[in-house]
């Protein structure tokens, strides 16, 4: 009998989309987040109270002396690909959720938003020596397959291959892809990751979602020896947290800052989520801010 992860898809989907509606983002996510990929500019029209303020073109409004918003012709062929880290590094947790469980809930909530908007979801997941690649498709069957794979325990384990998945996508890049979500802890990257990320995000809208557990940042305050194992190499180390605490936490902060700098040096976007914090509001807030910045930076100045 197959075992399943401790995931609550229904609750998280409901709360995430509730937060999106609160920010009026669900109905404009593709108009702004993936503008130019799935939409073609058509014309201007006068703003009404029912419109989203993020669609206002302030320069055109100034010239016309009235508030105008842009209208777009929808091409309804938006394709989103998820790259999900299934390595041993994600099978860890000190809160209510393992990192892989938390990542599964985040990914499925986003995929549900895409599918129910009439668009297509694909994925790349490492499976042993190979990469399971599913070309973007729409419909409930694709959503069910995606959600099912991510809740199976046998889907996880082994060396993290997030960079290999990016290499695979770059080698088989379909220019019709609209956006990519990369979900990982990003703690096991090579020096070439930044170059690969830049190559990918220059061509396609890319968002990195870092999943971290609070205990990975701060060792427990105990004065006794514990064994730590490197999930990538199997190497074990016996340490006393009270002795190693300062050096360990400095090292982790440095690694996390390196990851953030890599993302910020490319066109890709980045959000960090902690497993002890319920994600729907944080993720929706991030997407709202991203939409505002892409639509009209002047809105943020007056916020």
Q: What features would you describe in this structure?
A:
The chain is α/β, with parallel strands linked by helices and 303 residues long. The protein is built from 11 helices and 10 strands. Strands 5-4-3-6-7-10 form a 6-stranded mixed sheet, sandwiched between helices. The protein has a two-stranded antiparallel ribbon with strand order 1-2. It starts with 8 loop residues before the first helix and ends with a helix.
Please outline the major beta sheet. 6 strands, mixed
Helical region count? 11
Give the structural class.
alpha/beta
| Contiguous runs where pLDDT drops below 50 for at least 5 residues | 296-303
Helical coverage, percent range: 40-55%
| Mean pLDDT across all amino acids | 82
Q: How do the helices and strands follow one another from N- to C-terminus?
A: HHEHEEHEEHHEHEHEEHEHH
Number of strands: 10
Overall outline: globular
Q: Could you tell me the radius of gyration in angstroms?
A: 21 Å
Q: How big a fraction of the residues is strand?
A: 15-25%
The strands making up the biggest β-sheet line up spatially as 5-4-3-6-7-10
Intertermini distance: 53 Å
Note the topology.
Blueprint: H1 9-22, H2 29-32, E1 39-46, H3 58-64, E2 68-74, E3 79-84, H4 99-116, E4 120-127, E5 130-137, H5 140-151, H6 162-171, E6 179-184, H7 193-203, E7 205-212, H8 214-217, E8 226-229, E9 236-239, H9 241-264, E10 269-274, H10 279-295, H11 297-301
Parallel strand pairs: 3-4, 3-6, 6-7, 7-10
Antiparallel strand pairs: 1-2, 4-5, 8-9
């Amino acid at each position: 009998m197959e075992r399943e992860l401790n995931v609550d898809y229904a609750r998280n989907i409901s709360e995430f989309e509730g937060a999106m509606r609160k920010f009026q983002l669900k109905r404009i996510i593709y108009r702004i987040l993936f503008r130019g990929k799935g939409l073609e500019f058509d014309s201007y029209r006068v703003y009404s109270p029912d419109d989203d303020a993020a669609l206002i073109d302030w320069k055109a409004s100034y010239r016309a002396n009235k508030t105008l918003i842009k209208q777009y012709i929808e091409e309804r062929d938006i394709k989103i690909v998820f790259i999900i880290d299934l390595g041993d590094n994600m099978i860890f947790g000190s809160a209510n959720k393992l990192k892989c469980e938390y990542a599964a809930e985040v990914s499925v909530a986003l995929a549900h938003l895409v599918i129910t908007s009439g668009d297509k979801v694909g994925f790349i997941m490492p499976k042993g020596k190979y990469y399971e690649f599913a070309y973007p498709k729409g419909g409930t069957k694709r959503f069910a397959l995606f959600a099912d794979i991510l809740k199976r325990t046998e889907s996880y384990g082994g060396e993290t291959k997030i960079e290999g998945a990016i290499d695979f996508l770059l080698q088989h890049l379909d220019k019709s892809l609209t956006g990519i979500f990369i979900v990982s802890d990003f703690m096991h990257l090579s020096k070439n990751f930044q170059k690969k990320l830049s190559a990918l995000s220059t061509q396609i809208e890319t968002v990195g979602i870092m999943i971290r557990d609070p205990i990975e940042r701060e060792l427990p305050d105990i004065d006794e020896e514990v064994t730590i194992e490197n999930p990538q190499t199997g190497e074990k180390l016996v340490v006393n947290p009270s002795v190693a605490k300062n050096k360990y936490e400095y090292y982790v902060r440095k690694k996390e800052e390196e990851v953030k700098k890599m993302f910020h040096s490319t066109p890709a976007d980045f959000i960090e989520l902690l497993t002890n914090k319920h994600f729907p509001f944080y993720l929706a807030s991030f997407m709202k801010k991203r939409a505002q910045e892409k639509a009209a930076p002047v809105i943020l100045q007056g916020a």
